[in-house]
Amino acid sequence: MMVELQHRAVPTPALTAFNAANPVATVADFNSRAFQPVKAAVKADLNEDQGSLCVYCESNLAPNAGQVEHIKPKAGPNAHPHLCFAYTNYAHSCINPKTCGQSKRDRLLPIEPGPGCNALFALSTDGTVEPIAGLTRKQLHPVRQTRDMLGLNADSNLVDERKRWLVQTIVVLQQAPNDIQEFLQTAPYRHMLATVL
Length: 197
What we know:
The chain is mainly α. The strands form two sheets. Strands 1-2 form a two-stranded antiparallel ribbon. The chain has a two-stranded antiparallel sheet with strand order 3-4. It has one domain (13-194). The protein is built from seven helices and four strands.
């Protein structure tokens, strides 16, 4: 379960300027000193696009924390170097050795963050991310593969935190149902929590 990422229509101006000035930039340039201020501006814009959440685990993420993640990897066996400087291939991800971009590495996700990406996922009462009930074997595979590639159940602290927020969501739903949408607008894991409503 991920942020249903919708990139802004106009990419970060610093990125557009960098691409115009460096039409033959390579993957190595992504970590260059010249690109660092561009990367910081991109990260801040992505953070805003994602509602201050990690694109994959939906934990709260500050604009200057985490990393600029390539949804389709820039290097490795699944490399898409032509997308290395494409804003629409970027996401803001936390840095956790067990989860998210660190867990995904240079693999291709079967289900990428975007509108409708959570349709086949469910948040279980124990805080784990599971496929929704009733999927065929063919449908189950990409859901499980995406969840496991991102390590969404690999960090017990993350699972416990999601469970706590799920309990809070249920309390709000029972005691103040008219406030649930407002509650979800600021809650971490809000895309996951919305699947239980």
